[in-house]
Design a protein that fits this description.
Blueprint: H1 6-31, H2 36-57, H3 65-89, H4 95-101, H5 105-115, H6 124-141, H7 154-176, H8 183-205, H9 218-244, H10 247-250, H11 253-269, H12 275-293
Helix pairs in contact: 1-4, 1-9, 1-11, 2-3, 2-8, 2-9, 3-7, 3-8, 4-11, 5-7, 6-12, 8-9, 11-12
Length: about 290
């Protein structure tokens, strides 16, 4: 793969930093009226078809059975396990808190990249930055109630933490597993695989039983469309960055997203922005600065 231009890298990082930071609030608005698994499934199936069609139009080689297997596994971990469970968890916790909990992704990514055969051990500023970011997340979860009783649902929070582990595992697979040469085709196949699993998750959970689509507000549908279109652009940018940039640096998006999500939740949804949350956010941002400065 040719060395990417600085403009391409800046645009891709901007997408995963800013767009994904705003999608937490959009998902939170959407899942208030639309079942989370079917909302995520519709997003990934629709975007996946667009990505695959674009790749075929550009002359991408026909994928093999192994390509479908590998991209399907990545989609299972990232789209279904990662995004699907986050969408479910955002029914129970504020969008800003959900984004902060996803900040565990860099820790899992770095550990997974270290433990894989031939992996690189984090050193220096990267190790310090990741440790600082993890400390901020641990303080936010507040296991000892040092900032007062828990203000959010622990089941929802735990689900999002599990989702971050699954997302990180899929990120490492996406970086090293053999996939189609066309990034658009690979991204689309991952979305289709994850979307298919999400349909199954929706069916098993009985989400659609008794759902009245006519009662869903235009605002909820708008939030769904926002996540489906712009969120998919960010997803494709993220997968591309995994191929061309160090995993620890790519994972820093999870430190920036919470700041954006907290501010948007406070300004647009009336979510509580306490001094404790601000303090934890400051610790997390300090961690990302250390990692990026490396």
């Amino acid at each position: 793969m040719a060395h990417p231009s600085r403009v391409s890298l800046v645009a891709a990082f901007a997408a995963v930093y800013v767009i994904w930071g705003s999608t937490y609030l959009a998902i939170s608005w959407g899942v208030a009226e639309i079942p989370p698994f079917i909302m995520a499934a519709g997003r990934f199936l629709g975007a996946g078809l667009v990505f695959v069609a674009w790749a075929v139009h550009r002359g991408a080689a026909r994928p093999t059975a192994r390509d479908w297997l590998m991209t399907g596994c990545i989609g299972l971990l990232m789209a279904a396990g990662g995004n699907g469970l986050v969408s479910w968890g955002l029914q129970r916790v504020p969008s800003g808190v959900g984004a902060l909990l996803v900040s565990m992704v860099p820790l899992w990514v770095t550990l997974a990249d270290w433990l894989r055969p031939g992996g690189a051990r984090p050193r220096g500023r990267a190790a310090l930055g990741l440790g600082l970011g993890f400390t901020g997340v641990a303080l936010l979860v507040n296991p000892a109630d040092i900032a007062g009783p828990h203000a959010f649902d622990t089941v929802g929070a735990g689900t999002i933490i599990v989702a971050s582990l699954l997302w990180a595992s899929g990120s490492i697979c996406a970086r090293y597993a053999p996939q189609p040469a066309s990034q658009a085709l690979s991204s689309g196949m991952q979305m289709l695989g994850g979307g298919a699993v999400l349909v199954g998750m929706s069916a098993l959970s009985g989400e659609l039983a008794g759902l009245d689509w006519s009662a869903v507000s235009p605002a909820a549908f708008g939030a769904w469309g926002y996540v489906a279109v712009l969120g998919s652009v960010a997803y494709g940018s993220y997968l591309w960055l995994l191929k061309v940039a160090p995993p620890a640096k790519v994972a820093t998006y999870a430190y920036v997203n919470p700041v954006i999500a907290l501010l948007l939740g406070y300004l647009l949804a009336g979510e509580v922005l306490s001094l404790w949350s601000l303090g934890c956010s400051t610790v997390i941002v300090a961690g990302v600065l250390l990692v990026v400065s490396r």
